[in-house]
Backbone:
């Protein structure tokens, strides 16, 4: 049994098609068949049932595929740590972040402050949405995630709120209220809203919807966007209005105005999350530093 066989097993289990799996693995289809056959012989159990038209996991395959996926993640993490050590670092920390947090001073403060304290630790940062980050955390592919609350609470994870920012309104420059420095959210109740697509009850999308509900209305027309920058860009085209964290005011796009809200409950919170039982000294040091900053 080797890494290539396990990787082939996991990819084939995901797509259930030898041709597609071989293409994804960048190997010939006969080589993929050999990997699966060798793994089945090594384990002494069938992992797939297959005929000319269908491929399906056996009961045994269903029981083992998640463990195989975790084993691959551990192996890849092992290789990453070895590379980091070869480059002279004494450890590595892989941090995920949501795109809207990149302009928040909290992220720069965390990263730069920790680097000064621990210059021998390599920090790798990756952008993912909330759902992707939590999945990667649970699969040990991230050490820590910076997400926007609210987030699902998993017993395997711990959470720490690090920064709460007011939401502000983004209006087209020709909107009647665009010249007002501060407005009530309810005054936008008739406008189309551009809202970040997040899972129900999660992240910035839910914070925007919740703020509208607290203001006494539900937007009648909503266009969901991939991220905050897309929403601001669409506002500049007159497609509607948006709610974003106030840190996004530094995004200078023509034909938009940013207005503060009188609604004190319209906020968005950045939250750190990590595996509760992760044995990573660099992670423990990072969390300790984050707690110091939030006291």
Residues:
């Amino acid at each position: 049994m080797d890494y290539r066989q396990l990787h082939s097993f996991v990819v084939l289990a995901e797509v259930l098609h030898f041709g597609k799996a071989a293409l994804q693995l960048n190997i010939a289809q006969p080589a993929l068949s050999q990997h699966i056959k060798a793994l089945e012989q090594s384990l002494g159990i069938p992992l797939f049932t297959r005929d000319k038209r269908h491929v399906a996991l056996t009961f045994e395959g269903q029981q083992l595929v998640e463990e195989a996926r975790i084993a691959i993640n551990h192996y890849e993490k092992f290789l990453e740590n070895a590379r980091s050590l070869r480059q002279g670092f004494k450890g590595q920390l892989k941090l995920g972040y949501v795109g809207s947090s990149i302009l928040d001073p909290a992220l720069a403060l965390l990263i730069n402050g920790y680097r000064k304290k621990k210059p021998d630790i390599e920090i790798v940062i990756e952008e993912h949405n909330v759902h992707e980050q939590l999945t990667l955390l649970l699969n040990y592919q991230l050490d820590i995630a910076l997400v926007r609350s609210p987030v699902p609470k998993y017993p395997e994870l711990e959470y720490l709120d690090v920064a709460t920012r007011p939401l502000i309104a983004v209006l087209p420059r020709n909107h009647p209220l665009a010249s007002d420095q501060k407005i009530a959210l309810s005054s936008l109740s008739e406008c189309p809203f551009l809202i970040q697509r997040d899972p129900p009850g999660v992240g910035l999308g839910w914070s925007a919807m919740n703020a509208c509900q607290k203001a006494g209305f539900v937007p009648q027309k909503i266009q969901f966007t991939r991220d905050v920058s897309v929403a601001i860009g669409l506002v500049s085209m007159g497609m509607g209005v948006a709610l974003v964290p106030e840190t996004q005011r530094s995004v200078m796009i023509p034909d938009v105005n940013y207005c503060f809200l009188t609604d004190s409950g319209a906020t968005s919170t950045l939250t750190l999350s990590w595996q509760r039982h992760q044995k990573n000294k660099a992670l423990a040091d990072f969390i300790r530093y984050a707690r110091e900053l939030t006291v």
